[in-house]
Amino acid sequence: MKKIFLFIILFIAIHKMMMAQNVGIGTTDPFNKLQVQGNLVVNAPSIATATAPTAAQSKTMINASTVAFPVSDSTGRIFDPGGPVGNYLPNLQAFANISVGFNLGIEVTAETMNLATGDSLIIKESSTGTTLLAVGNGYNSTGKWVFNSGELYLIFKSNADANTGAGFSLLFRRLFDNSSSLPDISGFAGNTFSFNAKTGAVRFGRFNNSTQGYYSTAMGNNVSASGLHSFASGSFATANGNYSFARGLSVGAHGQNSIAMGNNISATGSNSIAMGFNVSTSGSNSIAMGDNTSATGENSIAMGRSSTSGGETSTAIGWVTTASGNYSTAIGNHVSTNNQNGSFIIGDNSTTTVLNSANINNFRARFAGGYKLFTSADLSTGCTLFAGDNAWTTGSSVYTKENFAAVNGEDFLQKISRFNLTSWNYKTQDPKTFRHYGPMAQDFYAAFGKDEYGTIGNDTTINSADFAGVSFIAIQALEKRTAEQQQYIQKLEKENSKQTEKLEAVQALLQQLQKGLEKVKAIQNKNL
Question: For residue 515, what are the domain limits?
Fold first, then answer.
């Protein structure tokens, strides 16, 4: 029995010893090495002056005025409008301002505090900032407050009744960073959680021994955030550019302000973004997203799959697209700007043969199914280039038209006959290379720009469909004129044939008469 009793005592003692290894804050029964119930704050050490305020740094608030403490005052004492002794008066409103400086925060100690009912003290970040503290209505507790603000603005109010208090005496001290006195974090291995109060760096998981950037965060497996204000998470993620962000597997945000997310990602250009799989950005201010995309030109964009934007301010979007010319754009499937600056190329999914830009500042498009351009919201007007065609087609069905008006073809011919038809060139082009034939838009509009229903075109351009329509009307009028002339010619030919027959008959009669006359002459010669 004694052995059992001793065993029980030993078991309880061992259990107590094991439990004693756990530390609880806010709990008496911790189940972990450290268990906290409630808020938890970990911050870097700060330092403040230990010197008491001078007489010049001790100021009494004044009704309807603001007393100010300059940046050079590392400490100071503030009294209510009643001063160090005596009660404050009723119906007052006074202000105090502790000017912003290079301090982390401000510690305020209420050395004395006695506010009457209806009176208040408000402490704000600034005159228009967030309220940090508001007390009143008989508040008389002394104590200490620490405010995470480089500046404070105090507002004291007393109401109009005769009930006043002794007021307050507030001692403030500016708090300055003292983290340089801290040693570097060491003595860890494996999965670790740490907050480096010296650098403001936070680490979760397994991280390497690389430099920890100030105010950086790294979480995951073999992650590194050495850049200032950088963030890295995932596995083998590196953020060594200042203000960079790396998230994923084998990702690196190396450029300043760069972002790398995904799998096998590299963002080396400053202010660049790389996202997806096997994606890289080396150009400043560039963006690459998708699968095997690369943006190497400054201010360039590459999106899709196997797309590359190498030209400055270039864009490549789609599958196997390349924008290698500066300010060039490649969109779609298997197209390339072919180092032609300012070119734009777009391709469909009809082939895997790459279509290249041929000239600078050139537009090329490949759509094996044709093109359709609409010029109205209801899609009723536009033009089409059908698959395999080499010219544009415009809609001309009678079922889409109305308000038909007859035209006078002869009138059209007369108007055309008065046109000043010449060869010419545009003023902005070289006449040795760019010459043209045709009418002027002003003449065309003056002749054909109006009918009984409305306006046709304008006086600066000629619509090719209207041009063809006028030409057809003129051709029809010429055909009508030709047909009439042909009929008249046929009539003349018939009349000429009849006259020919008559002439032939007269000629035959004359021949007979000639023969008779010759016979008469022959008889007369014999009788002589």
Answer: 413-528
